[in-house]
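Retro notes (design track)

What went well: tokenization of the new backbones is finally stable.
What didn't: we kept losing track of which sequence belonged to which structure.
Fix going forward: every design gets posted as structure first, then sequence, in one message. First example under the new rule, 195 residues:
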């Protein structure tokens, strides 16, 4: 199995990518989505469960038969704050958030085969308002899955990491305060989202 991860600047892009991979026959059980709650809330159709402390609530929804997006739930991940998430990666991160495993979202990505530097950038992208989609596929299906995910304009983790470092960022810090974009930033992001 190969794990393919892509981060998107908008929830709409990520949602379209998830729908495309599921339509192509990749099982929902092998797809994950983790989105910044503050940016995605309007589009994710998820109720705020008392301040995002309901990480356990996501577990019951992960196997939803109507596709991954039907199983979205709200949980808190250290360094990311409240996120809207579903899938195996979200489950692994929730366990890590509960203290059972060290490493949080970055550790889960690295354990799944993602380069550490890319994992840091992906996690930081979610923290700053983006959405992460991760897909597990048999090795022979990797190129097809990558092509599907790349149709929706994911960030380039090398370029985005360089951009973050110009602003003083070094690596993902799970102890950093959760990022909550200003209303102006949310408006700017929404104006650039495909409908």
């Amino acid at each position: 199995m190969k794990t393919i991860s892509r981060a998107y600047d908008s929830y709409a892009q990520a949602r379209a990518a998830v729908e495309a991979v599921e339509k192509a026959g990749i099982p929902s059980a092998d797809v994950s989505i983790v989105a910044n709650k503050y940016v995605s809330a309007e589009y994710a159709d998820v109720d705020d469960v008392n301040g995002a402390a309901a990480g356990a609530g996501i577990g019951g929804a992960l196997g939803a038969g109507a596709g991954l997006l039907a199983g979205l739930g709200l949980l808190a991940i250290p360094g990311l704050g409240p996120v809207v998430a579903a899938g195996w990666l979200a489950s692994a991160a929730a366990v890590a958030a509960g203290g059972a495993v060290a490493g949080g979202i970055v550790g889960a990505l690295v354990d799944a085969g993602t380069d550490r530097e890319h994992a840091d950038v992906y996690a930081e992208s979610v923290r700053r308002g983006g959405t992460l989609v991760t897909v597990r596929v048999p090795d022979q299906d990797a190129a097809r899955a990558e092509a599907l995910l790349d149709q929706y304009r994911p960030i380039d983790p090398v370029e985005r990491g360089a951009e973050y470092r110009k602003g003083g960022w070094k690596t993902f810090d799970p102890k950093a305060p959760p990022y909550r974009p200003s209303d102006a930033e949310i408006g700017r992001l929404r104006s650039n989202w495909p409908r």
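Added context from the reviewer: The radius of gyration is 15 Å.
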